[in-house]
Write a structure and sequence with these properties.
- The protein is elongated.
- 20% of the residues lie in helices and 29% in strands.
- By secondary structure, it is α+β, with helices and mostly antiparallel strands.
- A seven-stranded antiparallel sheet has the order 1-2-11-3-4-9-10. It has a four-stranded antiparallel sheet with strand order 7-6-5-8, with no helix packed on it.
- The protein is built from one helix and eleven strands, in the order H-E-E-E-E-E-E-E-E-E-E-E.
Amino acid sequence: MGRKRERTSRLAAAYDWLEIAVKAVILVAVCFALVGRMVKVQGVSMEPTLHEGDRLFITRIGGVKAGDIVVSAQPNTYNELLIKRVIATEGQEVDIDFETGEVKVDGEVLDEPYIAEPTRLAYDVQFPVTVGEGCVFLMGDNRNHSIDSRSTDIGQADLRYLVGKVVFR
């Protein structure tokens, strides 16, 4: 009788541990789905702010505003996630003077202490451009080594494809 009780006790303990492990996995999965997740920076388009290999925690909680760094999964020519800075939101007008390197939003020159160098690289988007409904205009901080909303290969980012905004690295 003692061995049977001992075996039952061991099975009960193993079941309890299994139950705890399953609940922990479910809790982590729910947190990642609802609260946030980790992504890894690939490339140099966000230097000097972010560097290749940096790990970022992103969250889906809250809206995005100009200045936020976001991750977009919008389909693009390069078939990759984009980590870029929000320059303007829907309805705002973006204009870039590629000779002076200045970026203007609604006629105001942006103060951009985070960029690597003035914006000289132009792609095929004609400026000024108004950000479409439900979209944001994205640019990398390393402007002359970034493919972003200045190119029709990327375009303006549809808010439905935003994976989240960066909370910390």
